[in-house]
Design brief:
Elements lengths: L4 E4 L8 H12 L5 H23 L8 H16 L4 H5 L11 H9 L4 E5 L3 H11 L5 E4 L10 H11 L6 E5 L2 H9 L3 E5 L15 E3 L2 H11 L4
Parallel strand pairs: 1-2, 1-4, 2-3, 4-5, 5-6
Helix pairs in contact: 1-2, 2-3
Length: 227
């Protein structure tokens, strides 16, 4: 398998999005029980998924991810009945990396150019990558395509920047839905298991499946050739 560039999903794959939002909700309303925090986390996540889906379907004009984050934070604040939703929305920029993320990216960067490809907006990515210690050769936002993954135009951003045929790019994600979108755009695909991801279905056929970034690096060393 000849791969020139690795393209990474960010939210869920490299950072623990639920943990960051959960921490933000706890700070916002310290008196909440754990079960209440989980319910509000679900409110946030469902709003983001729903609104991004509506934009992809053409049912809503494009808005950047920080707008949807503010809406989700307002829904949480309304449910709690108090607090500054604008401050709560910033939780989406303070997402902790998975334990293997920083070292794994550094190892992979020794052999491949690394591209981040995220549904997060450019502004959110700046803070998110700084806070989590994510280092890239370049990072791309779906904002530049004015839609969200899995819309094809988002994956084309990475193809255009890489300057290679899509089959020379490996999309790495913890979300099977994201990898299916990448496959449709012609990418090779690698599923990385995370506790919060979207696991492959029995009908999925991804090129690689890894337990983490170290495992992914080991597999790539075995199956790729570098000229």
């Amino acid at each position: 398998m000849d791969i020139d560039v690795l393209v990474f999903d960010v939210l869920g794959t490299l950072v623990d999005e639920p943990a960051g939002i959960r921490a933000g909700i706890r700070k916002f309303a310290p008196s909440l029980a754990d079960a209440e925090v989980e319910q509000l986390l679900s409110v946030w996540q469902k709003h983001v998924e729903q609104e991004q889906g509506r934009i992809v379907a053409g049912e809503r004009p494009y808005v950047a991810s920080e707008v949807i984050d503010r809406e989700a934070a307002q829904a949480v604040a309304d449910a709690v009945g108090t607090g500054n939703a604008a401050e709560l929305a910033l939780a989406a920029r303070r997402l902790p990396p998975w334990p293997d993320t920083v070292a794994g990216l550094a190892r992979l960067a020794e052999r491949f150019p690394l591209v981040g490809l995220s549904n997060a907006s450019r502004t959110v990515l700046l803070d998110l990558c700084a806070n989590a210690g994510l280092r890239w050769h370049t990072v791309l936002s779906a904002e530049d395509a004015r839609t969200y993954k899995p819309a094809p135009d988002v994956y084309r951003l990475a193809i255009d920047v890489a300057g290679r045929a899509p089959e020379r790019l490996l999309m790495v994600a913890a979300h099977a839905w994201d990898l299916r979108g990448a496959q449709e755009a012609g990418f090779r695909t690698a599923y990385v298991g995370r506790p919060v991801g979207d696991p492959p279905a029995s009908t999925d056929n991804f090129d690689l499946q890894a337990d983490g970034l170290a495992d992914l690096a080991d597999q790539l060393e075995r199956v790729t050739r570098r000229g």
